[in-house]
Amino acid sequence: MFVELIATIFAGIACAGLVMFLNMLTGKRLPKWLTPIAAGAGMIAMTISNEYTWFSRTSAELPEGMEIAMTVEEQSWLRPWTQIVPYTKRFVAVDTGTARTNDSAPDQKLADLYFFGRWSPVNQAPMLFDCAGNRSALLIDGAEFDAIGNVADANWQAMPPDDPILNTICET
């Protein structure tokens, strides 16, 4: 966030400097109000660019074995350009590389989910998926396992069969 703020400030300085240079080349014929307008326009353009490139920059840095299961796009009237082209504000990645199964319950998979948000810290949560029953159980508070390794106290929640997170983990 701090680096983006610095980049935005420098974009404004660069645009103002460009207008000042053009003003010098034209014999100071440009209006004086053009310099702060150019600085503001450069800062707005940099902010918009950072919003639209955040997802691609963040997803490119994910380690191997992490698959993006779901993205959430946002539109806002406070950002009128998002009405034309929405931007990705958050996404969920599944760590398929460390997904685990139990031989006694082959239709169940345990995987870590990572929740990324534009201005939020990354959150991680272990989740148990029942691929045959289209359901999941969040295991944040830990879990108790029975003698053969099945989760004994899972709080199962139904999921639609076309849920992107369920499909991502069950296809691995």
Overview of this protein structure:
With 172 residues, this protein is α+β, with helices and mostly antiparallel strands. The protein has 2 domains: 2-61, no CATH class; 87-170, no CATH class. 36% of the residues lie in helices and 30% in strands. It has helices at residues 2-25, 34-60, 81-84, 164-170, and strands spanning 66-74, 87-95, 100-102, 105-117, 120-130, 135-138, 157-158. Strands 1, 2, 3, 4, 5, 6 and 7 form a 7-stranded antiparallel β-sheet that branches. Strand 5 and strand 6 (135-138) form a beta hairpin. The longest helix is centred in the first third of the chain and has 27 residues, at 34-60. The mean pLDDT is 91. Keywords: Membrane, Transmembrane, Transmembrane helix. The chain crosses the membrane at residues 6-25.
Features:
4 helices, membrane, alpha+beta, 2 domains, 7 strands, seven-stranded antiparallel beta sheet, transmembrane, 30% strand
Short description:
The chain is of the alpha+beta class and 172 residues long.
How is the secondary structure organized here?
Layout: H1 2-25, H2 34-60, E1 66-74, H3 81-84, E2 87-95, E3 100-102, E4 105-117, E5 120-130, E6 135-138, E7 157-158, H4 164-170
Antiparallel strand pairs: 1-2, 2-4, 3-4, 4-5, 5-6, 6-7
Helix pairs in contact: 1-2
